[in-house]
Write a structure and sequence with these properties.
This protein has 266 residues and is α+β, with helices and mostly antiparallel strands. The chain has two domains: 3-109, Nucleoside Triphosphate Pyrophosphohydrolase (Alpha-Beta Complex); 143-265, Nucleoside Triphosphate Pyrophosphohydrolase (Alpha-Beta Complex), CATH 3.90.79.10. It is 18% helix and 32% strand. It contains four helices and 16 strands. Strands 10, 11, 12, 13, 14, 15 and 16 form a seven-stranded mixed beta sheet that branches. It has a six-stranded mixed beta sheet with strand order 1-4-5-2-3-6. The relative contact order is 0.13.
Length: 266
Amino acid sequence: MDFAPAIRRPDDPHERDIVVLFAGSALVVADPAAPRLPVRAELGRHVPATTVHVGRIGGTAVETAALAEGADLPAGLALEPLRPLHGRLRDAEWALAGRAFQLAEWDRTHRFCGVCGAATVRLDDERARSCPSCGYRAYPRHSPAVIMLVSRGDEILLGRSAHFPPGMYSTLAGFVDPGEGAEEAVRREVREEAGIEITEPRWFGSQSWPFPHSLMLGFTAEWAAGEIQLDPSELEGLGWFGRDDLPLLPPPSSIARRLIDGWLGA
Ligand SMILES: [Zn+2]
């Protein structure tokens, strides 16, 4: 069923509302053995007094909020980290939870004005919190990042960060600097992380990545010059891999994997 985002809900809270609650980066799920997003009736008094309206899925409103610290949950509900729930929650619910998380986190962290310190209020005609004292407006944050598959003949360039699961390699990636275009960021990241030059990056596709608020911009490019050099301050492993000697790859939920699968299918 299609999700339609909205800022203000037109009706009163309802027991059937889907309520996406977070404690830190963990999500409240119902039926932990076969997890799903809970509805208001199941959460009862645990739904905070104010929630952020996310939108509607079918006729059902979706609300989100951050739970108070140390809240005890009713039986049948559990807190689980969002990322590993991919593949366990239905895809549409996981995407909805990622969207809600970014809104709940923005709302939770912008309660006071960054300019003058006064309490902000949430606007209902714009996705923003406004300062009644100085007029400053805080919008949900996005951090653009580039991710790129670099190929050379029948091999692709993959690297591994120290925080990856053992044995896993992925495409190179990095945040876009202020003032920088996405293609510039691709060339810079490849230069910094691998020491090589590449051809003009080609657009591949994008993915929202709510950890905590990245927008991943995917590109492909080909090697143009230079030999790869590992910078241990950036990566702990780096190499060219052929289709028959690929290492452990990122999960199918990631744009990194879609980039690699796209190359494998080519
Ligand atoms: Zn202010």
